User: What shape does this take?
Amino acid sequence: MTDQRFSVGLGQTIVPVRDAHRFDESRLADWLGRHIEGYRGPLEVRQFQGGQSNPTYLLATPGRRYVLRRKPPGNLLPSAHAVDREYRIIRALQESDVPVAATWGLCTDPAVIGTTFFVMDYVEGRVFWDPRLPDRTPAERAALYDELNRVIAALHRVDFSARGLGDYGRPGNYFVRQIERWTKQYRASETETIRAMDNLIAWLPAHVPADDETTIVHGDFRIDNVIFHPSEPRILAVLDWELSTLGNPLGDFAYHMMIWRLDSSTYRYGLADADFAATGIPAEAPYRRLYCQRTGRGDIRHWDFYMVYNMFRLAAILQGIMGRVVAGNAASADAAEHAARARLLAEAGWQLAEQVADL
Assistant: This one.
């Protein structure tokens, strides 16, 4: 099977709408007709299979295709599934150095389809699901990773105040607040005792570096959350902004680079055991140096702390998926498999934490 699919973002394939995520399509069509200039039916609604958080749909009409992203139905964790925030930041980044899809509207009225949703353009291009890029040549892999590096560096250089995002998050104390947030989210969805997670919850607040700075952070910047041009190593749209906020860019970049520290047995397509020289994928140190050059900084101090923090954070996210599996409203049929990796992520994080010198 090829490692690329032509779709938008989170969906691996397009399937009929899952029973748990059905809604009144006639009400949606009426809303689209009233809020989108040039909209003409009839409307066909399909669902993107995959994605662990917000259900995502393809809206096809005879003249145009759109994408709808919504909060899932059911009882949700506090502050989770913030599609209204996704919509706001995508709109704010229009015509910036960060490529995003064009937006068409946000609906917060639950009478339409049951939950808040927004509509954006369908972007035609390539989504690569395996960061090892097995079907690409070494030169193609190098070019694709260079583009990823360029875009995340561009994001961290955006003047968020000039884009109307001065209140999109709280500047300062980012890691303290995030550790508190993800600890609460983890406890709210905890289904079993993970000793390594308990250790990290105690260790992280005591080891937060004093250094702090504030930029827009994506929160989930991965190769499968961007759409590349159909034939060029150029990103057309960055997707899945649910976890975006104002925060420390080094934490955001370390999350993006976390797969360099993980193997595939711990987290899907880890790169820890990759042959970088043979594949063309940049190794951890040169890739980090390139980001530093593009953002005008020296090498990153406390790098291992940022890695530990992100392993903890991802373990909390995966545990949240498991909580939704138990509740029966997870967005992906294979969510249980991914959620089971929470323990492996926590154990990897704690193993690294035990090697970190006092900060």
Summary: The longest strand covers residues 44-49.
